[in-house]
Design brief:
This protein has 54 helices and 22 strands. The protein is of the alpha/beta class. Strand 7 (779-783), helix 29 and strand 8 (812-816) form a beta-alpha-beta unit. Helix 15 (335-348) runs antiparallel to helix 44, helix 20 runs antiparallel to helix 40 (1074-1116) and helix 40 packs antiparallel against helix 45 (1245-1273). The longest helix has 54 residues, at 1010-1063. The chain is globular, with a radius of gyration of 42 Å. The N and C termini lie far apart (130 Å).
Length: 1536
């Protein structure tokens, strides 16, 4: 030491620690303080330079900033070496200690290194350097001590002893300070970087080191989001390294390596030469893995490739950086309790220099600050890893799904694969955030126990035992909760399914007056659901108690054991509060461990599922030889043998086909003989067992079921080809799509819903054909494209597209067809029988051979007529949406085929009248729209509406007034008194906790006097226990009351919504998409049931925790109140900014998430088409774009949490700082136990502050659900169901007389009248037919009788009772209707006939006999309890119609309304219904809305409506004689 320092001592305690004005010796300053930053830089620079060498972002131009930094670096080096040379100079005169040579040398070298790093960073494109920032900070901090001490020396001595060194030091200090300030600024971005080209780059990439550590760069978005709600255009682009382009290939590359490893080990096992291709595999990702796969698929795999390894290799290194941060943070966590110990010791001692206390306070603050920054860096790394994992997994699954074989497709359904994407990828994402807890939790526990042992000795074990006992308790609760959750999900699903059915069939329920029975069914399910909810709530109350009381119980047992084990043990402030703060640290890892383990288990299941999917076999691209070769044949198959899966027996065998270039080959055969399989084989979709296929040129494919994308009509046809106006128009013309475009709302820019929902079957098929035609391929594979379109369109298409004169005449075409009429015009015909080619040749040749083909023709020419009827039926479906052009189509069809026999023409005419008369077009279009919505929740409309809805929400949640009202609504639902009581309970539990801790601080005060301490021990322990246990019980009690309140609220709100929806008039359902109403019942009720209460619970908990901290600190150091106001203001601002931004980000994220999955399920259904047209890569790109869009809103969401965390924790750290500072200042008046109390409270406030903001944000987004449910619970209801004082007599209507007096009605306010001033009288027992053109108001007549439409003027009386005066149910239950569309509900057949169980089984069987269903039902094993599926899908349409008849027969009222089915269901059923009605309802008044006149020709009278008025009303015979409207209609139908 002496050689180093000379005469000066290195360390002198008296001068340093115990002086009021402390100072360090010069030697210490020169050695330790000067060397610290140098050692740091030299240690870190090799790693850093290596990192820079690896990561090059392009170079940055020399800027002024860079030049100044470099010059300063050189000057620093010169300054340091001036010192060195000065020392050499002085050596001649006197003996100089070594330190004066070593330090300038080391520091000078370090400055050179720093200057070199500055330049090297510039060349590598680093805009802001963390390494140097830390170095300059350390240098400045270390130089502050000599800075002060040199001034003190000079001022005490009155002169400067060593002028040169004095000057050089201050130059050194000034320059390092300048470098520190300069390193806070950013360089310009590197040349040619993406930042320059990107329109909206993420500021993170250009953010400085400080900005990156504090997430300052996010502030701009927080401000923007606060000013007005964020939109998609405000989001930043994804960082290059997080985008799919970078992330997915990385994972795929590792996965390829894994697969090739698995294969090479396998080949070694088999003792064969290692497959050479595998080597190239690893280098070029582009080489598809199929070849390797196929070779290996024959042999059993010995080692599965591990997906986990691939993931680790791709994302492990990045994740490890996060883990390193976590390790650092764990270690720093334990410094604060040690500092607290020193602080308490400091307050005990008298006469210690006060700077000790201040430095402790600032150290605590510094530690906490460092911990905050490091923790959030760790989180950032983890979340970004999670995000990349999700992107990569989705990308890998998507790419795989495009190439898997059909066999593999069988094993995983579309739903399962979408689940892999949504659920399993999400699980990985969630796991990464906790994954580090696996090692960090045990580490924290061990460290905490180590320090506790040091403080309290072995009695810690008692506390640990309590903790260990609590673990199984929590685990059991968690398991039970999970079981309950599953059960509750089942009830919820059942309830939503039922609600969906009810809303779909609401009209029928109203007509039959069945609402009550169905409401009961919903409420029964809801009751079960609430019971499970209640159980779950009680469980969670227990676990909350365990979670809050755990630290307390642990502390209690530990302290109790500690003081009773040994008389010498005295609990003083230092021991008590240090161990309390350690116990608080322990609480987190102990609670996290079980969670991490359970989510690990889930993730491992997910991993296995994903790995299984990614290891499926892939299609062999060499199945079909596509190489161009000079040949006359475009398609050749030589003894092909094909099966759908390797294990299956071959579907096609001995296939030999030669198709000459440019010819048209028709493939015919019976159903299931392998026609479609042949097309699949040509596409390479089947397993080729032997043989050879080659196709010359590109392929276009039209599948049997048209595959339509959710895009515009034009995009569906172009399918990625460039748009050429001329060509496009001619394609539309050829495919007969031009007339359809005029009907579609947006022409060819109409958005088409998922699965082509808003196109009819024929239109879909034509679009699919147009796509093929537009692609201009060489070979066309057409799989029965003409079956879905009607006959005259088929003819048009054949003539203009496929046939010898069509647009494709020069191309090679293979047409699978059932249409015999086209066969004479094709070049060759191939007949398939049971997967073999039975014969092949031209039409004439085959007829001569008189083989299978001739048989086929004979069969089909008989069936031809039948088949054509089917065509007309299909056509009916098509025409439903466009009644205008119905007639023209039919006439076409009739004219084009002169050979049609007379009967057929008659039939056609009849149909044309029917289709011309398709119910009022307004209601029809609405109904059509709602049908489509209910089938697939038509996404387009849903999206638009949802968007509209979203905007409305955004406005309502922004304004303060609405919010307070909504909170009040929820409080009312919980019960106003109960709400107040809950808050009171929470306050008292906090009070109990504070009480216990204040008692503890009193207890520790006893430590000053040993005798008192011993006497009082039992009382102290007893009261402490009592207070703590009280707190535990209060926690549980408050959680219980909250649970009761939440159940009550959930029950009330749902009940209100349900009641209102059953009482809502029909008009509401006609204008509101069902999706919206269902959403209220599912999503919003779920939020009210589960999300909202737990948020309230957390919010109250954190709020009172933060409040109690403030109270404790203020009561011990009142001056603290001064600081609270500015801190609260900052807190409030940060919170407002965060809530506004994060809420909108969450919304954007959920909106952009569903397109990923819908695009994916769409792709899976259309893989064969995508592959045939060779559009794989385009679809992969689309999927990637959608994922990136989603991550674009997810990423700022993560960062917003980090941004918030850093700011809020900073406030928390300030609280710690001020609590400690004021404790130091008020040291004389405070006892140590109070200091311990207030500082240990301050140390745990950060957590609750942070959570409180999150909870506020969640509370705001969740409370909206209450508002939305309220909105739909308050829609205006229809008339009352029963009016007590106006009840009609029990046997009413006994006669069945109906009278309309000057009656008018309209559909909704603001629409025109549908019926105008109708007056007519009908006597009991008359049979009235109602006819008229579309829109004449026929259906409205029935709706008026049932008061689904309320009168706009006039009245209807039935048997002298005015119907508008009586209750709706009294009216509707006395009338019977057989509606147009038979609606059945899921449940038993018995329930469908008689939901109120009014009738005996005999009555029901009787009704079934009369409705011709007896045989069908008695053949079912379940008889009357036959389960009907949703919408009665498991009965045929005819049977459903008969069930409706049976309902009518059961009710048997005096008035029957029969709304004939428009679509020709089948004539047989219809005749059955008619005959039954004639016999069974002989004495009833019957109104029939007729579409086929022959059914009403024998009725008493016929009412002809025209434009809502009575045109003619007389007997059919008289009307025909009058030659009016009715005569014209009858003539058209061939009845006059």
């Amino acid at each position: 030491m002496e050689r180093l320092c000379g005469d000066e001592p290195f360390w002198e305690p008296n001068r340093t620690l115990y002086a009021d004005v402390p100072d360090l010796t010069e030697c210490f300053q020169l050695s330790v303080l000067s060397w610290t930053p140098c050692i740091y830089l030299w240690l870190i620079s090799p790693l850093y330079l290596f990192y820079l060498k690896r990561n090059n972002k392009g170079y940055i131009m020399m800027s002024l900033l860079n030049r100044v930094k470099t010059v300063f670096g050189f000057i620093l080096w010169i300054v340091c070496w001036t010192d060195l040379f000065a020392s050499f100079h002085e050596m001649k005169e006197k003996d100089i200690p070594l330190i004066y040579f070593i330090t300038p040398l080391i520091v000078g070298m370090t400055m050179l290194l720093a200057t070199f790093i500055i330049q090297f960073e510039r060349l590598r494109g680093v805009q802001s350097s963390g390494v140097l920032f830390i170095f300059w900070t350390l240098s400045v901090l270390c130089a502050i001590v000599p800075f002060r001490s040199k001034i003190i020396h000079a001022s005490t001595k009155g002169e400067v002893k060593d002028t040169l060194r004095f000057t050089t030091f201050y130059m050194y200090f000034g320059l390092t300070l300048a470098e520190l300030i300069l390193s806070c600024f950013n360089e310009k971005p590197p040349l040619f970087s993406s930042v320059v080209t990107d329109p909206n780059p993420c500021p993170e990439s250009t953010a400085g080191f400080l900005s990156g550590m504090t997430f300052w760069w996010f502030t701009s978005m927080a401000i923007k989001g606060y000013k007005n709600p964020l939109e998609t255009k405000d989001l930043w682009s994804l960082n290059k390294q997080d985008s799919s382009d970078t992330v997915v290939p990385e994972l795929l590359r590792e996965w390829e390596v894994e697969k090739s490893k698995a294969q090479s080990t396998e080949q070694d096992v088999n003792g064969q030469a290692v497959y050479s291709k595998a080597g190239t595999e690893a280098n070029h990702v582009e080489v598809s893995p199929e070849e390797v796969e196929v070779l290996l698929s024959d042999r059993k795999k010995s080692r599965q490739p591990s997906f986990l390894r691939a993931l680790l290799r791709a994302f492990g290194p990045y994740f490890l950086i996060g883990s390193a941060f976590k390790l650092l943070q764990d270690l720093i966590t334990f410094i604060n309790p040690q500092l607290l110990r020193l602080l308490i010791e400091f307050t005990k001692e008298k006469g210690v220099p006060s700077w000790w206390g201040f430095s402790l306070a600032f150290l605590m603050f510094g530690c906490a600050l460092l911990q905050t920054l490091i923790l959030h860096q760790h989180f950032q790394y983890c979340f970004v890893t999670g995000m990349r994992l999700r992107t990569a997994i989705i990308g890998a699954i998507y790419r795989k799904s495009l190439v898997i074989t059909n066999e593999a497709k069988r094993s995983s359904t579309v739903g399962e694969v979408v689940n892999l994407m949504s659920v399993d990828a999400q699980r990985f994402m969630d796991l990464t955030t906790f994954l580090n807890m696996l090692w960090s939790a045990p580490l924290q526990i061990v460290l905490a126990l180590f320090f506790l042992w040091q403080t309290l000795g072995p009695s810690v074990l008692a506390g640990v035992a309590v903790m260990i006992l609590l673990i199984p308790f929590n685990a059991v609760i968690a398991m039970k909760t999970r079981a309950y959750q599953v059960e509750q999900m089942q009830y919820k699903d059942a309830r939503i399914k039922l609600m969906n059915e009810i809303l779909n069939g609401i009209k029928v329920l109203k007509l039959y007056a069945w609402e009550v029975s169905f409401k009961e069914k919903v409420l029964q399910i809801r009751q079960k659901e609430l019971n499970v909810l209640r159980k779950t709530a009680y469980l969670s109350a227990l676990s909350t108690m365990a979670w809050t009381s755990a630290p307390f119980l642990v502390a209690l047992t530990t302290f109790a054991v500690y003081v009773t084990v040994d008389k010498k043990n005295v609990l003083d402030a230092e021991k008590a509060f240090v161990s309390l703060s350690l116990f608080n640290i322990l609480r987190f890892p102990l609670n996290m461990l079980p969670q991490v383990i359970s989510s690990l288990v889930q993730a491992s299941v997910s991993l296995r599922r994903i790995q299984e999917f990614l290891s499926h076999d892939e299609l062999d691209p060499d199945n079909v030889d596509r190489k161009p070769a000079p040949s006359d044949y475009a398609v050749t198959v030589v003894n092909g043998k094909f099966s759908w899966a390797k294990k299956d027996s071959p579907t096609l065998h001995n296939i030999n086909v030669l198709v000459p270039q440019g010819s048209l080959l028709a493939v015919v055969g019976h159903v299931g003989c392998g026609k479609s399989s042949l097309v699949s084989a040509l596409l390479g979709e089947m397993e080729k067992q032997e043989g050879h296929i080659s196709i010359r040129g590109s392929v276009a494919y039209v599948p049997q079921q048209a595959w339509i994308q959710n895009a515009t009509l034009r995009d569906n046809i172009l399918f990625g080809k460039p748009y050429v106006e001329q060509k496009y128009r001619s394609v539309l013309e050829a495919c007969a799509l031009t007339p359809d475009l005029e009907v579609l709302p947006g022409g060819d820019q109409t958005e088409i819903g998922e699965k082509g929902i808003n196109l009819s079957g024929g239109q879909r098929q034509r679009v699919s054909l147009a796509r093929a035609l537009y692609s201009e391929a060489d070979v066309y594979l057409l799989d029965d494209p003409l079956s879905a379109v009607d006959a005259h369109v088929a003819k048009h298409i054949f003539d203009n597209v496929i046939g010898p004169e069509g647009a494709l005449r020069g191309k090679t075409r293979i047409l699978v067809t059932h249409g015999i009429s086209f066969l004479p015009q094709v070049d060759n015909i191939m007949v398939l029988v049971d997967g073999m080619v039975s014969e092949m040749g031209s039409y004439q040749d085959l007829l001569k051979q008189n083989g299978a083909f001739a048989d086929f023709l004979r069969n089909y020419s008989l069936e031809d007529i039948v088949e054509d009827d089917e065509v007309t039926e299909v056509l009916m479906d098509e025409e439903e949406s466009f009644p205008d052009d119905a007639l023209s189509n039919h006439t076409d069809m009739v004219d084009n085929e002169p050979a049609v026999n007379e009967a057929r023409r008659q039939f056609m005419r009849q149909i044309s009248i029917m289709s011309n008369d398709v119910e009022n077009p307004k209601t029809k279009s609405i109904r059509r729209r709602r049908c489509s919505e209910r089938r697939h929740g038509d996404p387009q409309q849903e999206k638009k509406e949802a968007k509209g809805e979203k905007l409305i929400q955004a406005e309502t949640t922004e304004t303060g007034r609405v919010k307070s009202k909504v909170y009040w609504e929820y409080a009312k639902a919980v019960g106003p008194l109960l709400s107040v009581f809950i808050c009171f309970l929470y306050a008292s539990q906090s009070a109990a906790a504070i009480g216990a801790n204040i008692w503890l601080s009193q207890w520790t005060n006893d430590a000053r006097n040993d005798t008192i301490a011993h006497e009082k021990v039992h009382m102290r322990v007893g009261v402490y226990a009592a207070l703590g246990i009280t707190q535990g019980f209060l926690v549980m009690f408050s959680a219980f009351t909250l649970a009761l309140g939440k159940i009550q609220a959930a029950c009330k709100l749902h009940q209100g919504l349900l009641d209102n929806k059953f009482h809502t008039p029909q008009a509401f359902y006609d204008t509101t998409p069902i999706g919206r109403i269902i959403n209220r019942f599912s999503k919003d009720i779920y939020v009210i049931d589960e999300a909202l209460p737990s948020t309230v619970l957390m919010f109250l908990g954190t709020f009172f925790a933060s409040l109690s901290t403030m109270i404790v600190i203020i009561s011990s150091t009142p001056i603290f109140a001064v600081v609270i106001v500015p801190l609260a203001l900052i807190y409030f601002f940060v919170q407002r900014f965060y809530v506004a931004t994060s809420r909108q980000l969450k919304r954007l994220e959920s909106v952009s998430r569903s397109p990923i999955y819908s695009h994916f399920s769409e792709t899976i259904t259309g893989t064969s088409v995508i592959r045939a047209y060779g559009r794989n890569s385009a679809f992969v790109l689309m999927s990637d774009m959608k994922v990136d869009e989603n991550q674009k809103s997810y990423y700022p969401g993560i960062v917003s949490n980090r941004w918030l965390g850093v700011r809020i924790e900073f406030i928390g750290n300030c609280i710690v700082l001020f609590a400690a500072l004021f404790a130091v200042i008020g040291k004389e008046s405070l006892n140590p136990s109070l200091v311990g109390l207030s500082v240990s409270y301050a140390l745990q406030v950060t957590m609750s502050l942070n959570w409180m903001v999150r909870m506020t944000s969640d509370l705001e987004s969740n409370i909206v659900a209450v508002e939305r449910v309220k909105e739909y619970s308050e829609t205006p209801p229809e008339a009352p169901w029963e009016v007590e004082d106006k009840k009609p007599p029990g046997d009413w209507p006994s006669e069945g007389n109906v009278e309309f007096v000057d009656y008018s009605v309209r559909y909704r306010e603001g629409l025109d009248l549908v019926l105008r001033n109708i007056s007519l009288k009908v006597k009991g027992g008359e049979k009235i037919g109602i006819v008229g053109r579309t829109g004449a108001g026929k259906s409205s007549m029935t709706l008026c009788l049932f008061r689904l439409l309320e009168a706009a003027g006039g009245e209807i009386t039935i048997d002298a009772v005015k119907i508008e005066e009586i209750g709706l149910h009294d009216l509707r239950s006395k009338l019977t209707i057989i509606p147009q569309e038979p609606v059945l509900f899921s449940g038993t057949l018995r329930m469908n006939l008689d939901p109120f169980e009014k009738y005996s089984d005999d009555d029901v069987w009787n009704a079934l006999t009369l409705s011709h269903l007896h045989k069908f039902v008695s053949n079912q094993p379940a008889k009357l309890n036959l389960e009907c599926s949703e919408g009665g899908e498991n009965l045929s349409v005819g049977q459903r119609q008969l069930v409706c008849l049976a309902r009518a027969l059961l009710r048997k009222t005096r008035i029957l309304i029969l709304d004939e089915a428009t679509a020709a269901i089948d004539l047989e059923t219809d005749d059955l219904i008619q005959s039954t009605i004639r016999t069974q309802f002989e004495d009833c008044t019957v109104f029939t809305i007729a579409h086929r006149l022959n059914t009403i020709m024998d009725y008493t009278r016929v009412l002809v409506l025209d434009k809502g008025q009575v045109a003619e009303f007389d007997t059919p015979v008289n009307l025909i004689a009058q030659k009016g409207i009715f005569y014209g209609m009858a003539k058209d139908a061939g009845l006059a």
